[in-house]
């Protein structure tokens, strides 16, 4: 090794072993609660014995991280990380594993597997190159995490972050606080202290994070120290499980071997061709190929985080990795909540007189009637009893207690609770052992231990405002304004101004965590372009890091030409294998908070005008309308559907294109568009009937909610170009209250009357013709199905699937699949969209109106 050269061989070993240790912590934490969360009798049943599998994974990870450093152990560590990531990804389909740190763990696992490969090569040059590229990927991941967290605060327009008062609320409203949080909250109550903390946070997450991309060793060390310091301050007041450890492991990757005070033992270069290919060529090829994909994918993520359009090559690389959960976008604490509303569950039980008196004295029970008492259930980690101090959790992530914090936020937004919460209450009433174990804990009150062994007579759920108890309130049990006081907490129960289900919600509450960064509002064009220019300027400095990491040929002796040629050939072979893997159909992404967007194939969709023109030509004959030929989708376009040239002057037959679909059915089921005659369908919008041989693909923004709204947006194609307009005007009453579908020239197509949806009793919306005449009505058929019926009560369409995740199938009255919807990513737009694919000879206007009506009904369930 030449003097002055910086290497990352020891750093790669440390990071890969720390990631394994982190995985052991994650699986150990998951194993303690997996039966209650995902077991066969759990809240969201997913697998048979998940806790056993999680404990086995924890043992494997813990064993592998202590293996001695050698080529074989590097291979074992890499394979273990890949296997653990696959198992963890399978668990992420549950409702309790879609947090941002779960996605971060998946991305870290893949990078750590690449870092573990750096110990396999026998050549020092190849070892240093592999380790340098792997640590460069970790540096990009850390920068993406911090940069996204900074920009999401700036783009969210949250007044607490804008005016510097966020830290006056953070320590009080954190999900699972620690005992230190009360003291930090009092210290941060000063505006100057809060503003200083806000500025320090934004500087560490923003400008100082650029040091991670520079080739300056001291700057990278300073950046690592700042990141770790930020994590320590966050962990001082809140129990965030293993998230703080994840960020510290990423920060460790910024240090080189010299800063660790360690150096790896040099290995002689093997001249045997077969040995060189297995130990040197293959690890180098795999590392280089993954870095070559991860680098542009990260650049694309940074562009999108900055609200700018990424280059096409970078966007494609991001989609390939994004669909496999190997490259995500992050944005932590986008907005700050200013109140703490806790879920309080009380059950009605018959208690012995002595036990009831003791529970009343301790504030855990209140008399209902006769010998029946309302007993409050105290969860092990979330705030509950007023005299109980908050817990201190180093690595454990109590997912049920954490998720309960978001239930009150969703209630204030939509007056509804999530489906998993209803299932949890049902399991709790049935006293399922695995679910009861999530509530029972060591040191619980004897009355709770007693009531958990018997089924309740009734259950009551309230949302109560919690505050830290002030020193002046320690001697008071109840204040004049209704606050109950204890040693640690004060609460006011129940909140008097909760919104009822029928009452419209005026404004949405700020949320502590932004699960999807793209839900932040789109800034102005100049602001986005400015962020784009600044971001590109800072990214150019990463070349210094690349030169430091990979510039080995100019500093070291050049290997033999034969070795270089063989290395090039092996790289090409590995790249071909990787591209073949990427060209396969991606595995459907699990439900994520967050995460819920999946890249889709992009090819031009016909505009509403083109579709209407083609439809008129098909119905009126070849002499009416322009002649020509349009390919849809274009030849060579990326997409799972067949590409057929359709003459505009005739109705050419199209072989039914097929695609695997997981929407509302079993995995791997095959659906196909079946050609049908136009007489079989009752038509709402004749000009929007999809011609035979074509399919209509468009995207709809997720903005409708189950409340009165006044807004407008466009139905767009997958490139973001408008196809038609949607006007939502629900301020009035009668036919003027509804959702109106118009073409680009403002010609009315249809409307959805919603005034009856806001009346008592509630009735579902009706779909009307442009004249105002009712065309069909919507009926609910179970929790996962809606039916459209005409004025003669005949079925027109049936909608079924997961309406919350926009995974919906539209089925005709003859039982044929005519449309599919799923979430997608739209360029040049920061909002959340879902795409709709409409089959040939189907009324796209009726499909769109039915989906919009369901969006209005199910709007309260939007994440």
TrEMBL record:
Occurrences of domain Lipase maturation factor 1/2 C-terminal (ranges): 328-492
First-listed, main subcellular location of the protein, grouped into a coarse class: endoplasmic reticulum
Topological type in the membrane: Multi-pass membrane protein
PANTHER family on file: LIPASE MATURATION FACTOR, LIPASE MATURATION FACTOR 2
Protein family according to the UniProt entry: Belongs to the lipase maturation factor family.
Keyword Glycoprotein applies: yes
Any one cellular-component term (Gene Ontology): endoplasmic reticulum membrane
Membrane-crossing residue ranges in chain numbering: 12-31, 52-83, 276-297
Protein name: Lipase maturation factor 2
Entry keywords, A to Z: Endoplasmic reticulum, Glycoprotein, Membrane, Transmembrane, Transmembrane helix
Any Pfam family the entry gives: LMF1
Protein's gene: LMF2
Keyword field contains Metal-binding: no
Domain Lipase maturation factor 1/2 N-terminal, residue spans: 98-260
């Amino acid at each position: 090794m030449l003097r002055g050269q910086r290497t990352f061989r020891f750093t790669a070993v440390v990071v890969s072993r720390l990631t394994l240790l982190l995985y052991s912590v994650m699986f150990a934490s998951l194993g303690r609660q997996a039966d209650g969360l995902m077991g066969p009798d759990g809240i969201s049943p997913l697998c048979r014995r998940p806790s056993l599998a999680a404990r086995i994974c924890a043992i494997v990870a813990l064993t592998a991280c202590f293996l001695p450093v050698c080529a074989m152990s590097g291979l074992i560590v890499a394979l273990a990380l890949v296997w653990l990531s696959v198992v963890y990804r399978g668990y992420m389909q549950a409702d309790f594993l879609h947090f941002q740190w779960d996605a971060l763990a998946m991305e870290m696992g893949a990078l750590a597997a690449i870092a573990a490969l750096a110990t396999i090569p026998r050549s020092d040059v190849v070892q240093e190159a592999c380790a340098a590229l792997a640590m460069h990927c970790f540096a990009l991941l850390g920068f993406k995490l911090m940069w996204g967290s900074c920009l999401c605060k700036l783009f969210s327009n949250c007044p607490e972050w804008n005016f510097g008062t966020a830290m006056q609320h953070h320590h009080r409203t954190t999900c699972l606080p620690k005992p230190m949080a009360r003291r930090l909250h009092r210290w941060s109550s000063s505006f100057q202290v809060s503003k200083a903390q806000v500025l320090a946070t934004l500087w560490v997450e923003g400008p100082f994070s650029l040091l991670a991309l520079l080739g300056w060793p001291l700057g990278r060390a300073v950046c690592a120290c700042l990141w770790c310091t930020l994590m320590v301050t966050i962990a001082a007041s809140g129990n965030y499980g293993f998230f703080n450890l994840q960020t510290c492991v990423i920060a460790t990757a910024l240090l080189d071997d010299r800063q660790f005070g360690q150096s790896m033992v040099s290995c002689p270069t093997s001249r045997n061709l077969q040995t060189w290919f297995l130990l040197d060529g293959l690890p180098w090829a795999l590392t280089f190929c993954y870095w070559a994909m991860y680098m542009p994918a990260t650049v694309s993520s940074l562009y999108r985080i900055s609200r700018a359009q990424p280059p096409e090559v970078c966007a494609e690389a991001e989609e390939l990795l994004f669909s496999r959960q190997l490259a995500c976008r992050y944005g932590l604490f986008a907005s700050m909540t200013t109140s703490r509303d806790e879920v309080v569950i009380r059950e009605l039980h018959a208690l012995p007189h002595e036990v009831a008196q003791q529970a009343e004295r301790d504030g855990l029970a209140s008399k209902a009637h006769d010998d029946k008492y309302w007993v409050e259930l105290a969860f092990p980690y979330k705030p509950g009893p007023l005299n109980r101090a908050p817990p201190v959790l180093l690595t454990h992530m109590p997912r049920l207690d954490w998720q309960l914090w978001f239930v009150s936020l969703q209630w204030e937004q939509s007056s509804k609770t999530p489906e998993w919460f209803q299932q949890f209450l049902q399991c709790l009433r049935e006293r399922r052992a695995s679910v009861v174990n999530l509530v029972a804990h060591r040191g619980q009150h004897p009355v709770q231990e007693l009531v958990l062994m018997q089924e309740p007579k009734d259950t009551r759920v309230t949302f109560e405002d919690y505050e830290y108890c002030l020193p002046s309130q320690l001697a008071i049990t109840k204040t004049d304004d209704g606050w109950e006081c204890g040693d640690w907490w004060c609460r006011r129960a129940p909140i008097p101004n909760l919104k009822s289900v029928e009452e419209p919600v005026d404004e949405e509450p700020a949320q502590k965590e932004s699960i999807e960064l793209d839900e932040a509002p789109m800034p102005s064009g100049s602001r986005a372009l400015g962020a784009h220019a600044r971001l590109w300027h800072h990214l150019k400095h990463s070349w210094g890091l690349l030169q430091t990491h990979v510039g080995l040929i100019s500093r070291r002796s050049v290997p033999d030409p034969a070795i270089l040629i063989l290395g090039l050939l092996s790289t090409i072979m590995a790249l071909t294998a990787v591209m073949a893997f990427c060209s396969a159909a991606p595995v459907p992404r699990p439900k994520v908070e967050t995460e819920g967007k999946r890249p889709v194939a992009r090819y031009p969709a016909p505009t509403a005008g083109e579709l209407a023109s083609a439809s008129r030509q098909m119905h009126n004959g070849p002499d009416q309308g322009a002649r020509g030929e349009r390919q849809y989708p274009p030849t060579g376009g990326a997409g799972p559907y067949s590409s057929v040239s359709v003459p505009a002057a005739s109705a050419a037959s199209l072989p039914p294109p097929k695609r695997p679909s997981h929407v509302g059915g079993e995995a791997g089921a095959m659906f196909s568009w079946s050609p049908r005659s136009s007489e079989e369908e009752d038509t709402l919008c004749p000009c929007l009937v999809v011609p035979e041989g074509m399919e209509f693909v468009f995207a709809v923004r997720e903005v409708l909610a189950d409340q009165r709204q006044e807004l407008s947006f466009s139905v767009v194609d997958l490139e973001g170009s408008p196809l038609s307009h949607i006007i939502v005007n629900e301020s009035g009453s009668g036919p003027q209250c509804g959702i109106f579908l118009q073409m680009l020239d403002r010609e009315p197509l249809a409307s959805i009357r919603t005034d009856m949806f806001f009346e008592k009793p509630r009735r579902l919306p009706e779909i009307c013709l442009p004249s105002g005449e009712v065309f069909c009505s919507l009926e609910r058929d179970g929790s996962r199905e809606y039916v459209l019926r005409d004025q003669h009560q005949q079925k027109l369409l049936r909608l079924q699937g997961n309406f919350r995740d926009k995974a919906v199938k539209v089925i005709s009255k003859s039982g044929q699949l005519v449309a599919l919807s799923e979430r997608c990513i739209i360029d040049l737009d920061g909002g959340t969209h879902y795409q709709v694919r409409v089959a040939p000879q189907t009324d796209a206007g009726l499909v769109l109106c039915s989906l919009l009506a369901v969006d209005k009904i199910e709007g309260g369930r939007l994440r």
